[in-house]
Amino acid sequence: MGARCVSYEKADWYTDIALVDDPHAYFDYLRAQGPVVRLPHRGAVAVVGYEEVVQVSLDTEHFSEINGVTGGMVDLPFVPEGDDIGDELEAHRSKIAFADQIVCEQGTRHANLRSILSRLFTPSRLKQLQPRLAATAEGLIDEFHGDGQVDIVRQYGGPYGALVISDLLGLSEATRARFRKLLEGAIPVPMDATHEEMMKNPLVPVGKELFGLIARRRIAGHPLMRPFRTLLAREDILGELAKATYPDGSKPSLVDVTGLAAFLFGAGQDTTNRLLANGFKVITTRPDIQTELRRDPARIPDFVEELLRYDGSVKSAGRLCRKTTTLGGVEIKAGTPILMSHMAANRDPARFPDPSRFDMDRPRIKEHLAFGRGAHTCIGAPLARREVAVSIERLLARMGEIRLSEEHHGPESARRFDYEPTYVLRALKSLHLEFDPL
């Protein structure tokens, strides 16, 4: 889509569709004013400097993750008063949208939930998964290879992410196929979504089915179920989750365990899909890079790291000031919503010289913030890197001279791309490619 007219001075990051096409330009505008900037709406403050984003990510005393999903759209069920609202936030957590998600938790509860997920991402488990990554890629490529064209978002990236997470959880082939069908055509929650629209998200039925699968495995461990254990028990990854305990020996609720499994589908499936699409946008608009990656596939990991910095799939995350503080020379009162942008930080020229240039030879290339910092660093980062690298390697190996479809994206002199209207993800709606089958 062509550039929409927008006044950055009056723009509302959370609702202004005009900011969707080119968030980098908007963040450049904000950063020119300073690393921390007051916004004209919602009483929010934007944090766009690299060092300042790191500081907020690490400072859990002054900043809460409770609005990690909703950002500036958070509707506090109380009027903030005073310079420390930490206790009030926790007292009202159950009334704040999405505050029970792992990305919005903090302290001991967050550490407990993360300890459950960490068992899925051990080096040995990821190594075991590696052959499945390549096999899944090959299977999906086979579905469109003979056509010489593909929408990499719908036909490859979406199903690939869902199938990989299914493998990670050890789901059966039948369940894998059912989940793939449910997630076909899934889109990120739009900026103006109602609660009813959110509940139509395909992740809702996925979560319900996961609840049943995990509950069955947990029930099998009950003493009264001993006569039926051979019928109910499953020695698989979902069984491990069903039996998992927190570090102190206590057992998480079924709702908590199911929420973690469903979270993997939401966070893992879509972000990786969108990152891969952003990657092929670079590959098809930079023939020199496509040539380099074909000549030397060993450079693909460097490409992925620079892609994460240059145009990652996550634009922003929310924080809430829980204790009045000063950041970047700006006083921030308790109760202030924070727009924290890893995307903006990754293009901070104070940290990355010539940030709008894609450079696979960039020094300290892995110091981007695409996966966050601190306690909320993305636990699935190692898997995401492997998924994207394996996908690029197999797609380049099977597809010769990959080109953008002019029918869908216009001629080289006037390219057009449509993005999902979300303030969280940098998400192409589609990316139509043409290629010569190899």
Automatic annotation (TrEMBL):
* Stored SUPFAM superfamilies: Cytochrome P450
Instruction: Please provide the record's keywords in A-Z order.
Output: Heme, Iron, Metal-binding, Monooxygenase, Oxidoreductase
Can the keyword Oxidoreductase be found in this entry's annotation?
yes
- Name the InterPro entries on file: Cyt_P450, Cyt_P450_CS, Cyt_P450_E_grp-I, Cyt_P450_sf
- What domain of life does the native source organism fall in? Bacteria
- Could you provide one GO biological process annotation from this protein's UniProt record? cholesterol catabolic process
Which positions bind heme?
378
Entry's Gene Ontology molecular function annotations: cholest-4-en-3-one 26-monooxygenase activity; heme binding; iron ion binding; steroid hydroxylase activity
Cofactor requirement: heme
Tell me the Pfam families matching this sequence. Answer: p450 (PF00067)
Q: Give the family, as the similarity comment puts it.
A: Belongs to the cytochrome P450 family.
The name on file for this protein is Cytochrome
Identify the species of origin.
Novosphingobium resinovorum
